């Protein structure tokens, strides 16, 4: 290969990669004005940004024996931390310890609403909801970290259950679900740091906020498909029975009449 060809490949490959980017991909600074908008819009009102001097939850922490979110719950609600995992998706029913081999979400290993294997590696976490934060191309590690934090927090942190979008008295609501969060407070400085880390990365808001909805729809689609196929087979079988009855060879009678050899 001549030097010229290398040069062409060198120019063409990034262009191809760029060309393959979905049309809704933009830099974070094009999508969000600041960290507050990022935290509040990206997850459809799951989080609300509060000034740093107000109580707010922590998406990440280091002292595994002392989850600081427990104290935040006491400060905000005056109650002890939840004994159950109120949010249900991949979650456990009640928080419990995970082994020392718990992967990415290690801060929660003493008391966790996620199974260690659900959040074993970044790759597994990216595959959880079918579409990931990096579909606009590889993210900088600095930026990706914040998405890992958020996902660990959502999957493993028991106190997210205090911020469900719908409570269990609202099952009649057309949008009722047990996975959606609403206005869980986050500190402004944290959201600003997230925005700063992601400034030059590409992202698409388009589908990210609806990933979970799509998954619900997919589940429904599969169920309807299975029910449909079953109904079709049932129809086919009954018309077969009717046909046999009409042609004077009823299936069940014929079976019974068979002598046992
Ligand atoms: C559930 O939410 C609705 C609407 O916000 C509220 O009116 C109702 O009191 C709540 N029920 C319980 C048991 O918290």
Automatic annotation (TrEMBL):
A single cellular component GO annotation: external side of plasma membrane
Classification via InterPro entries: Folate_rcpt, Folate_rcpt-like
Matches recorded under Pfam families: Folate_rec
MF annotations from Gene Ontology: signaling receptor activity
Alphabetical keyword list: Disulfide bond, Membrane, Receptor, Signal, Transmembrane, Transmembrane helix
Folate receptor-like domain: residues covered: 85-216
Transmembrane segments: 220-242
Signal peptide: 1-19
Protein origin, superkingdom: Eukaryota
Protein family per UniProt: Belongs to the folate receptor family.
Protein name in UniProt: Folate receptor
Organism (species): Fistulifera solaris (Oleaginous diatom)
């Amino acid at each position: 290969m001549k030097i010229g060809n290398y040069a062409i490949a060198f120019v063409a490959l990034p262009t191809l990669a760029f060309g393959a980017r979905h049309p809704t991909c933009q830099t974070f600074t094009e999508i969000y004005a600041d960290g507050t908008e990022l935290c509040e819009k990206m997850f459809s009102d799951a989080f609300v940004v509060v000034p740093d001097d107000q109580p707010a939850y922590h998406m990440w922490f280091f002292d595994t024996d002392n989850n600081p979110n427990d104290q935040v719950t006491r400060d905000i609600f005056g109650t002890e931390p939840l004994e159950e995992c109120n949010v249900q998706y991949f979650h456990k029913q009640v928080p419990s310890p995970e082994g020392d081999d718990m992967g990415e979400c290690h801060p929660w290993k003493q008391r966790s609403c996620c199974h260690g294997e659900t959040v074993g590696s970044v790759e597994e976490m990216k595959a959880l909801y079918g579409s990931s934060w990096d579909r606009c191309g590889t993210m900088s590690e600095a930026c990706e970290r914040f998405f890992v934090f958020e996902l660990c927090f959502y999957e493993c942190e028991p106190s997210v259950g205090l911020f469900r979008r719908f409570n269990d008295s609202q099952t009649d609501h057309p949008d009722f679900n047990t996975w959606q969060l609403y206005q869980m407070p986050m500190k402004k400085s944290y959201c600003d740091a997230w925005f700063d880390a992601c400034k030059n990365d590409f992202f698409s808001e388009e589908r990210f906020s609806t990933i979970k909805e799509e998954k619900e729809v997919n589940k429904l689609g599969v169920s309807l498909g299975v029910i449909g196929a079953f109904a079709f087979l049932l129809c086919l079988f009954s018309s077969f029975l009717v046909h046999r009855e009409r042609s004077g060879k009823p299936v069940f009678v014929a079976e019974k009449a068979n002598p046992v050899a």
